[in-house]
Structure formats: C-alpha cells, structure tokens
C-alpha cells in the first residue's frame, strides 16, 4: 500500500520538507537542478518541467564477513548490505520527489562516500532532478511512484522520441572474493603468457550475478528492456581480492502497443 503524502513528509528531515515545500505546489517558483544547460533545454523540449533537486542519503555500516584465502566465493552479507544501503538512499530520493508532486526523476546519480570517523561506514547518496509532465499526463509507475532514470537529458529526450518511457532505475550487485593463487601455482606461472582460468571464472561469475539481479529487478517492474547499462567494479574497503560488481541501468517500456522503432535517417553524402 502506497504511503500518504503526510507519512512521506514525516519520514524526511524537517529541513528537507521545508525546502521542498518552498519550491513545490503553492511555493515560490524557483527550481534547482543538476542538469546541464543542454540537458535542461531537452527535458523542456520533451514536455517536462524541472521541479527541483531531490536527494536521498543513507549512512550504513557495511560490516565484515569471513572469507577463505584460497576460495572464490560471493560474500552474501556484504552484497546485501551494499544493495540495501543504495535502496534506502533511492527510496528517500523518491520520497522527496513525491513531496514535489513529480512524475519522475531524471539524471540520477548514485555515489558512495567514506569518512574518517568510520572505517566500515559509508554514506550512500542518490541525487537527481524531479520533473513533471506539462500536459498533466501521468508518467508514474504501476505502483503509483515517480519513475527514476540515470539517463542524461539528451538520452531522456531521445528515448521519448523513440516511443519509449523510463520505468525505474534498476540495479544488481555482487560482492565477490577472488581466490589468491597458491605459492606453487604462482611460481609455475611466472613469466608465462597464459590465461588464469581461476581468476577469469571468478570475475565472469560475479558479473553475471550482478547482471542477472538487475534484469530480475527490471522484470518485476514489467519492463521491456534496460538501456544505458553500466558495469562498475570497485574494491571499496575490502582489499584487492574482494570486489563489488554493480550493474545499473534504466528499465523502459513502450508508450504504445503497436510501437515500432523508426528507421535511422539516411546520411546523404556531400558532393565533393
């Protein structure tokens, strides 16, 4: 069951609610945005008006998990921690968009920051620009929530021109420990040009898990596909042999049942 606007506002910091109310319905018409000038113009051209910069934050203790030095394996507790922390930040950003009466959030960025006062603590931040359709049509998801997208303003305009609409930012993650080589194996392979199948298989499997989880999330939204997919690899605080694989993209749906992608415009060669 969707939360009421009053419940959403109670879950946000008082300063955030005050800021959003000043630029939201009935407030002063001054918006903030992290869109570039070109992105701003193309979002306007697509029929949307920017309402304000929205953000969500979650300071999360990542914790520790034991691992075997010589065994490649997913560290499931760390995987879940990284996923949950991002979801908390995303949901709070969506709550701010809800207060503004937005149809969606474009240009979403997901960042992770670390601070000196917490070795195993990280702040997860989601930031984007809330937008609303000028013609009053609804672009919200089937669950009644604003859509989210990490597409640039240019890509957002192109997506709509192609007959597709964003549904939501989807992600999949996998924290994976890649086994160390034993001393004998390392010595035997020194100076030889060859594939290291143990490492290859471990990294391949970890990426596949992240990709599959992203696709599963898109499937639950009823998406027809995922565009702008990025595969990001980071060691974070765990050392060189433990890596997080993050797959992230924008789930999309077609705007019409009979939608056909238009053919590309032919390029006419210039006379020499």
TrEMBL record:
Signal sequence range: none
SUPFAM superfamilies, A to Z: YbjQ-like
Gene3D superfamilies documented for this protein: Hypothetical protein apc22750. Chain B (3.30.110.70)
A family per Pfam: YbjQ_1
Family, per entry: Belongs to the UPF0145 family.
Protein name (database record): Heavy metal-binding domain-containing protein
Higher taxonomy: Bacteria, Bacillati, Actinomycetota, Acidimicrobiia, Acidimicrobiales
